[in-house]
Design brief:
alpha/beta, Aspartate Aminotransferase, domain 2, Aspartate Aminotransferase, domain 1, 2 domains, seven-stranded mixed beta sheet, four-stranded antiparallel beta sheet, 14 helices, binds pyridoxal-5'-phosphate
Length: 431
């Protein structure tokens, strides 16, 4: 089967040009201007130059990757090119076996699953391409046979998309939903494991936990919690909405029984891309709950969970391009960069007497997101001041916690320092 790019070159452009009598030799589907040149690895300005690969406006800082990642130019252009090509070649789509597939939800997408699987150290058959983390959570919570009285344990800091499925099962089927109370800030990995251990009873069936907690940005000890679940014959279900792209995600090392993610956050894929991982040996424990022709195909692993009918195939082309973009920089280089920006922010905040950090500073629990507040300043006020004074876009997560500042590859040391200056000035005004 031809790749979509090769199809575009070999089939789409040439015949369409030839078809128009006396047509000039121009592509029927014009290409958008390409992104700026890729910076050299040895360029001391590498990260500043890399920022040109995004549409972000100069002088504005985007610190809300935790909600949605900024899509790189080559990724968005790939999506647009793909959509445009489809429209320009609809008449040539004759369903013969060598033609590319243009609608998602009907094809096993093995090469793309292989590519994503490699990034998270899994097998392609263990990866389902879905639309977001919420969809992943729903597949898991509704697909599992649970009886009235069976218990599921989560934290008390879940995003709705990572917990409402369990709540529905509680209301509908009598499943018992239990929450552990997370300390704020959390700075002791042993304590987190202990809290889960203390909540387990003989009726517990599932330990469900985020890889990185949404409001407090705790990087949970997922490997230890998965082992704890197995010690008690429970399943370990991980909400990895913020995991892939922010921290190392190695499925074989984590050892969980299911992991779902939103690559449109930290992997910078176009919105509408999700990943669901279930290891081979656990797949038969989960029914699929969204069905089309392959709903009962157990041979191709997670293909059963990709039966969502017609969707925008070009978003998958965008996911493919986002993985390429990530590899072009290098996953380790990305992780080291965003961690160092977050460390700079944490260190700076610790020097400001009335600044408080609600996210962890413990190196095992801290990631690329810092949640911070100023004593006596409402979170919305801090969010607004950071924008008005510095064009720094962070996100309020409520007065008790403050603002959530997600540090990503398009952020800079200068933007972190500008944050610290504004926090210092606001704190001084109140002192
Ligand atoms: C921890 C967590 N889980 C799940 C979700 C839901 O993600 P999505 O809206 O991509 O489905 C989010 C979104 O921010 C999140 O932070």
């Amino acid at each position: 089967m031809p790749t979509r790019r090769r199809f575009f070159r070999n089939f789409a452009v040439a015949p369409l040009v030839a078809a128009g009598a006396g047509a000039k030799a121009q592509p029927a589907v014009p290409f958008a201007p390409g992104p700026p040149p890729w910076p050299d690895d040895s360029d001391p300005q590498f990260w500043d130059r890399l920022r040109e690969q995004f549409y972000l406006k100069p002088g504005e800082a985007y610190f809300n990757t935790g909600t949605i990642g900024a899509t790189p130019r080559p990724v968005l252009e790939r999506v647009i090119e793909d959509m445009r090509t489809l429209q320009a070649t609809l008449t040539r789509w004759d369903w013969s076996p060598f033609m590319p597939n243009w609608i998602s939800g009907y094809s096993p997408e093995v090469p793309l699953r292989q590519k994503l699987a490699k990034l998270v150290n899994a097998d392609a058959m263990e990866i389902g391409l879905i639309q977001n983390a919420t969809m992943g959570m729903n597949f898991l919570s509704h697909g599992l046979d649970l009886k009235s009285g069976d218990e599921v344990i989560t934290t008390n800091q879940e995003h709705p998309g990572g917990v409402c499925g369990w709540q529905l099962r509680a209301k509908r089927d009598g499943v018992v939903w239990k929450q552990i109370q997370m300390p704020v800030p959390a700075n002791d990995p042993d304590e987190l494991v202990r809290l889960y251990a203390q909540a387990i009873t003989p009726r517990t069936r599932v330990l469900s936990f985020p890889h990185i907690i949404s409001p407090t940005a705790v990087v949970m000890p997922v490997k230890r919690l998965s082992a704890l679940a197995h010690d008690h014959k429970c399943l370990a279900v991980v909400d990895g909405a913020h995991g892939v792209g922010q921290v190392e995600v190695d499925m074989k090392d984590i050892g969980c029984d299911a992991y779902f993610a939103s690559p449109h956050k930290w992997l910078l894929a176009p919105p509408g891309n999700g990943m669901l991982y279930i290891p081979r040996e656990r797949q038969d424990q989960f029914w699929t709950t969204l069905d089309s022709s392959e709903w009962d195909n157990h041979k191709d692993g997670m293909y059963r969970f990709m039966q969502y009918g017609t969707g925008n195939m070009s978003l998958l082309a965008g996911l493919d391009a986002a993985i390429d973009f990530h590899y072009r920089i290098g996953p380790e280089k990305v992780r080291a960069r965003i961690r160092s920006l977050a460390d700079r922010l944490r260190n700076g905040l610790q020097q400001i007497p009335s600044a408080r950090i609600s996210s962890p500073v413990h190196p095992e629990l801290a990631g690329a997101i810092v949640v911070h507040r100023i004593e006596g300043v409402p979170a919305q006020k801090l969010q607004d001041e950071l924008w008005l004074r510095g064009q720094l876009r962070v996100r309020s997560v409520g007065d008790a916690l403050g603002v959530r500042q997600s540090c990503m590859i398009y952020n800079s040391e200068a933007e972190i320092d500008a944050t610290l200056e504004i926090v210092k000035a606001l704190a001084a005004k109140l002192a």
